[in-house]
Amino acid sequence: MNELVITRHNHLIDPTLHIWGWEIPVYLFLGGLVGGMMLISGYFILTGRTKNTLCSCFRIPLIGIVAISIGMLALFLDLEHKLYVWNLYLNFKWQSPMSWGAWILLIIYPILFVTLLIRIPENVAEKFPALGRLSEKIRSNAFLVKLIGSLSMVFGGLLGAYTAILLSGFSARPAWNSPMLWTLFLTSGLSSAAALVHLIGKDPEERHLLAKADNGFLIAELIIILLMIIGFVSSSQVHIDAAKLILSGPYAASFWIFVVLSGIVIPLIIQMFSVNNKIVHTNVAPILVMLGGLILRFIVVYAGQFSHWPRNVFTVF
């Protein structure tokens, strides 16, 4: 029994025993992106923007289905025992973030599909009349539309937060073990989603609104990052060492240049000028925001794997 305990602890605290590749950061980014898109889509639906045929809420679900499918494929590729993935759905554990996440991801699909049915393209409705009638019936039911919008926001928020809870559950990794991580990932996902919807948006008013919202998300990201760093450097030595990975360690340059400067500060400045009509809206800022969000996940995942407790912390009684 004691050997088993030691083995498990060593597996957790030794960063060389299991190294995640590109799959997990990509999955976390796409999960956060889809979660943010669902929050935005739900907000547009609840505020009555479905009356506007140019509303991005009609294109978001299809993009969301594709993005979350790519993310789940990346997650599947990272699994060591791929043939046993179905066990997640047969053995639900209340205390397991993976169990919750598996079911959240499963529920996301029908919500996105029903949201897509609120208004399907005319050419699709002509080819599939039954689908067109179903879409019209859903759209004419105000209560059902509001319900879809509410579900989109609730499960979008759960998905966005879950992507960080999955990491923070690894208590043996001090860099991930922060109560601020889920707020950072959720805000970053909202920011990336606002940037993407800004890119695909066809309504100038909507694009302006999303740029303003994204500015708020970017400012919130900066504040959360600052609070996380303060929390780490004012905690135990292992947390101080974890903070050093992005303050002065191997990930410092990438974090401050590609995440903070290129992914937050520069887009924030550009979009502040654009929302105040000093310059025209440009696609540069949204692209930088999404790249910054993706690189953030890579740095958090990779740096976290170098962060660990000393072996002598775990003793056998």
Tell me what you see in this structure.
Helix 10 runs antiparallel to helix 12. The longest helix has 30 residues, at 204-233. This protein folds into 2 domains: 20-169; 173-317. It is globular, with a radius of gyration of 21 Å. The chain has 317 residues and is mainly α. It has helices spanning 2-13, 23-46, 60-78, 87-90, 97-116, 122-127, 129-140, 142-168, 181-200, 204-233, 237-247, 252-275, 284-306.
List the helices and strands and how they pair.
Layout: H1 2-13, H2 23-46, H3 60-78, H4 87-90, H5 97-116, H6 122-127, H7 129-140, H8 142-168, H9 181-200, H10 204-233, H11 237-247, H12 252-275, H13 284-306
Number of helical segments with 4 or more residues? 13
Number of strands: 0
Mean pLDDT: 84
Instruction: State the end-to-end distance.
Output: 11 Å
What is the oligomeric state here? single chain
**Percentage of residues in strands:** under 5%
| Helical residue percent band | over 70%
CA-based shape: globular
- Derived structural class: mainly alpha
CA radius of gyration is 21 Å
Major β-sheet annotation: none
Instruction: Write down the secondary-structure element order.
Output: HHHHHHHHHHHHH
Low-pLDDT residue spans? 1-17, 313-317
- Domains (count): 2
